[in-house]
Amino acid sequence: MQNEAARILVVDDEESITQLVSTVLRYEGFEVECAAGGRAAVKLTDRFRPDLIVLDVMLPDLDGFEVYRRLSATEPRVPVLFLTAKDQPADRVHGLTLGADDYVGKPFGVKELLARVRVQLRRPRASARHLDEVRVGEVTLDLRLRRAHCGRRPLDLSSREFELLEYLLDHADRVVTREELLRAVWGYSAAPLTRTVDNFVAKLRKKVEPDPRNPRHILTVHGSGYRLVRFVDEGLPA
């Protein structure tokens, strides 16, 4: 996605923060709108149709977590980067458990924020990107609307889960290391000691695998990482 096409909604009740973030983003070529409260953010999202939301947790009306829950009920999902002074591990875990895409604590560095914004706006290079829909076993991914279905049943995938599945799809049938996933999907410049990838893979398996305890599509390659197999015993080409 090119900068000039990307729309970013900045939600924070501190005017100094919204001015700083919006100025930096506009300088980088992004289209930016700002909201000072949770209810205003929900309404503005419907009108502005942002490609990314930079969302403060501590808001005067609806907190950021509640805003995220309301926005998560809409389709297509919008990636959310939480920006907040509540930088304790429990708050990070809560936000990421909800399915948020990233979490930056105040005070923050402008270069770090920009790097994380670009990661969320990036779309992985796809080997079948000319298709609107791609199958993984019984799961169908709509790459244009960023939705997923298993048969007729919609799958409730967060933006991060969808991007993880999309990246594995782009690199189907080859081993993708945890370090590669942390860089490509989460935007880490160096791979920290974390079980983030394993935890997200476990959640993803519960949604896309017929038997998550015996996965057929998202396979663990011990000591290395993961490998996605699109079709198993179906006589269909990968």
Note down, in words, how this protein is organized.
- The protein is 37% helix and 20% strand.
- With 238 residues, the protein is an alpha/beta fold.
- It folds into two domains: 3-121, Rossmann fold (3-Layer(aba) Sandwich), CATH 3.40.50; 133-228, Arc Repressor Mutant, subunit A.
- A five-stranded parallel β-sheet has the order 2-1-3-4-5, with helices on both faces.
- A hairpin with a 2-residue loop joins β6 (133-136) and β7.
- The longest helix has 13 residues, at 15-27.
- The protein is globular.
What structural keywords apply?
single chain, 238 residues, alpha/beta, Rossmann fold, Arc Repressor Mutant, subunit A, 2 domains, 5-stranded parallel sheet, 4-stranded antiparallel sheet, 8 helices, 37% helix, globular, disordered C terminus
Strand order of the largest sheet: 2-1-3-4-5
Under CATH at level 1, the class of the largest domain stands as Alpha Beta
CATH superfamily of the largest domain: Response regulator
Query: N-to-C SSE series?
Result: EHEHEHEHEHEEEEHEHHEE
CATH level-3 fold name of the largest domain: Rossmann fold
Radius of gyration from CA coordinates: 18 Å
Coarse shape: globular
What is the topological layout?
Elements: E1 7-11, H1 15-27, E2 31-35, H2 38-48, E3 52-55, H3 64-72, E4 80-84, H4 89-98, E5 102-105, H5 110-121, E6 133-136, E7 139-142, E8 147-150, E9 153-154, H6 159-170, E10 176-177, H7 178-184, H8 196-208, E11 218-221, E12 225-228
Parallel strand pairs: 1-2, 1-3, 3-4, 4-5
Antiparallel strand pairs: 6-7, 7-8, 8-9, 10-12, 11-12
